[in-house]
What we know:
By secondary structure, this protein is of the alpha/beta class. Helix content is 17%, strand content 35%.
Amino acid sequence: xxxxHKIIAFAPTLDANKARPFYEGVLGLRVLSQDNFALALDxxxxxxxxxxxxxxxxxxxxxxxxxxxPDIAQAVSALKxxxxxxxxxxxxxxxxxxxxxxxxxxxxxxxKDPDGNILSLTQFP
Length: 125
C-alpha cells in the first residue's frame, strides 16, 4: 500500500534553531519550513523533519539517518572541512579518516549532529 508513496524521515532535536545551521549550512539541505514543531528540510526529494522533542531527550546509540554517497572519501573530506568530526569505533578495518570497510565491501563513516544523533555516510561496492 505505501510502496508507491514517499517516505518522510524524522530526527529529534532539543532546539531546531540550533540544529538548523548544521543541517542547512553544513550538510547542505534546503529548508522547506520551520515552525514550533519541526524544521522541515529537503533531502534530495525526501522530507526530513528535525522535530523538537522535550527536555530529557537522550540520543540513541545507533545510526538514525544516513546518506548513500558515490565517493565516501570525498564526502568525509568535504564534511571535515566544515568542522564535522567522524566517530572512531575501533573496528578492525576502520581507517584513520573514520571510514570502516564492512565485510561485504561497503564503506561507512559515522558522525553526530548537534544533538548527538548518529548519522552516517555509506558507499556501496
